[in-house]
Specification:
It comes from Rhamnella rubrinervis. 74% of the residues lie in helices and 8% in strands. It contains four helices and two strands, in the order ααββαα. Strands 1-2 form a two-stranded antiparallel ribbon. The two termini are 85 Å apart.
Length: 261
C-alpha cells in the first residue's frame, strides 16, 4: 500500500498531532517490550525442546528396562502376580499434581509427581520372587517419573509455541502496520500545518498590502480635499477660477512661496 493509504483519517490540527505522537511513543515502547518477550519465550522454547529430545531418548531405555523387569517378575512369581498386587494395594502411593510457572507473562503448566503414604506391599510375593517384584515396581516408578516429566515438557512446549506465534504476530503488526501508519499520519499533519502556516503568512501579507493601499488612498483623498479647500479660498480672494487657483498654487509650491490669505 502507498503511504497515503497507510495513514489515519484525522483532522490535521496541533492537538491531534500531539495525540498521534503519544500513540507512536506507546507503540514504540510496546514493540520493544513485546520483542523482548518474544526473545525470552524463544530461549525458553529452545531449552524445553532440548529437554524433550533428551527425555525421549532416555524414555526408550527406561521403558525397555521396566518391561523386561515385569517379564522377570512374572517368570519368577508366576502369571497371577497381578491379582496379588491388586489385593495388597489400597491407595495410590505415587500421585501427580499440577502447578503453573510464569515465564515472561505466559503461564506454563507444570506436572510433578509426589509420594503419599507408605508403601504397604513391600512383602508382596515374598515367598515367590518378592525381591524381583520390588525391582519391577522401582523400574515402573522411574518410568512414571519420566512420563510425568515428558508430559509437563510437551504441554509447556505447545503452550509456548502458541504464545510465541501470538507475540510475533503482535510484533509484526506493530512494526509493519501500526508504527508506519502513525509515522505517515504525523508527516501528513506536519505538512498540512506547514501549508496552513504558509497560507496564513500569505494572507497576512495580502491584508497588510490592502491596508497600506487603503491608507495611501485615504491620505491622497485628504490631500486632494485640502488642496480643493485652499484653491477655493484663493479663488474667492483673488476673484479667479478654480483652475486658475490650482495653477497659482502649483506655481507657488514650485517656488516654495508661502500663501497668505
Amino acid at each position: 500500500m502507498s503511504g497515503q493509504s497507510q495513514r489515519l483519517n484525522v483532522v490535521p490540527t496541533v492537538t491531534v498531532l500531539g495525540v498521534v505522537k503519544a500513540r507512536l511513543v506507546g507503540a514504540t515502547r510496546g514493540h520493544a517490550l513485546l520483542k523482548k518477550k518474544s526473545d525470552a519465550l524463544t530461549v525458553q522454547f529452545r531449552q524445553i525442546l532440548k529437554k524433550i529430545v533428551s527425555t525421549k531418548e532416555s524414555m526408550g531405555d527406561i521403558m525397555k528396562t521396566s518391561s523386561f523387569a515385569l517379564t522377570e517378575a512374572k517368570y519368577v512369581a508366576g502369571e497371577n502376580i497381578k491379582h496379588i498386587v491388586l489385593e495388597n494395594v489400597q491407595n495410590a502411593s505415587l500421585k501427580v499434581r499440577s502447578r503453573q510457572e510464569n515465564v515472561a507473562g505466559v503461564k506454563l503448566p507444570k506436572f510433578e509427581y509426589f509420594t503419599e503414604g507408605d508403601t504397604k506391599n513391600d512383602l508382596t510375593g515374598l515367598a515367590r520372587g518378592g525381591q524381583q517384584v520390588q525391582l519391577c515396581r522401582a523400574a515402573y516408578v522411574k518410568a512414571i517419573e519420566v512420563l510425568v516429566e515428558l508430559a509437563s515438557l510437551q504441554t509447556s512446549f505447545l503452550t509456548l509455541d502458541e504464545a510465541i506465534k501470538t507475540t510475533n504476530r503482535r510484533v509484526n503488526a506493530l512494526e509493519n502496520v501500526v508504527k508506519p501508519r502513525l509515522e505517515n499520519t504525523i508527516s501528513y499533519i506536519k505538512g498540512e500545518l506547514d501549508e496552513l502556516e504558509r497560507e496564513d503568512f500569505f494572507r497576512l501579507k495580502k491584508i497588510q498590502g490592502y491596508k497600506k493601499r487603503e491608507i495611501e488612498r485615504q491620505l491622497a483623498s485628504s490631500k486632494q480635499f485640502a488642496e480643493e479647500q485652499i484653491a477655493g479660498k484663493v479663488s474667492l480672494q483673488k476673484g479667479i477660477s478654480i483652475n486658475a487657483a490650482h495653477n497659482f498654487l502649483s506655481v507657488a509650491a514650485e517656488k516654495d512661496e508661502d500663501i497668505i490669505f
